[in-house]
């Protein structure tokens, strides 16, 4: 994988338009993955505008997470109507999907649109709520698995494109997703394409080289509609890196949870009743504290790291603690196989045999 970024001789807007035009001309079926956020919103604007000029049709995929701001839903509906002449099918998916809940150790995952629960809001009448609509759908499947299987299903076993609005500047993982030299490209001069696992669909990343400033500059200069939630977040002092629109309970997204209480108190009350840890997340996630230990964690001075690890394990629900005991045991076994002495054994006397065991009392590897 290359770790270098090579500047192009054209600006990012021209490059993105060129990539989208190539996609519309080359692949017969094109779908835009849309979340209602600034990146995918810009990508939908660019793609739909070019499709109009080229007399082409596109599809749009939107995953409805149930617990979403009313202004986000209204924004999505407005773009669907605005580009109705070029959108052949708008897949508004409101099916039970499992995703991360970073607010609770008791419910580390949650399922949107879970049957038998009081939903935060009702899906639109034309949303896809029938599990039989997609042949690949399995109840409660993860979001990641759904979008992978959707890409193959959408292709109809023919060449197709899924336009994804990720940017390499957002995180190392997203940079690696594009820069990884082991991934198959449509062509050597199309580094912004990768082949989906099933081999029919191409993932297209037309704005992979845009920066956050480029996104906002484009919206400012064109006057195209953007999700008004960003204005509310800005006015509330939410840092740009924490302005997330998609699933609300992830490590990054939880930073803006408290806004629900201010902007939509009734919806916030429903979210607190619906998802474990939502109330505490609304109180603490937006603060500059170590409540959630995200990226940076401090231990008490009177404990060493192993003692602190034991304390944390003891404070967890047994199922969660067992999950991490097994992970730590794998880590220690890796050190053992490599002939390396784990750091905790160099300065601490507590035996890992006594610490990291299964719930039934048997050790994972020892």
From TrEMBL:
Domain Phosphoadenosine phosphosulphate reductase: 30-234
Domain of life: Bacteria
Stored InterPro entries: DUF3440 (IPR021845), PAPS_reduct_dom (IPR002500), Rossmann-like_a/b/a_fold (IPR014729)
UniProt GO MF annotations: catalytic activity
Pfam families on file: DUF3440, PAPS_reduct
GO BP terms: cellular response to oxygen levels
Cross-referenced Gene3D superfamilies: HUPs (3.40.50.620)
Protein name in the entry: Immunoglobulin-binding regulator A
Organism encoding this protein: Salmonella enteritidis (strain 2009K0958)
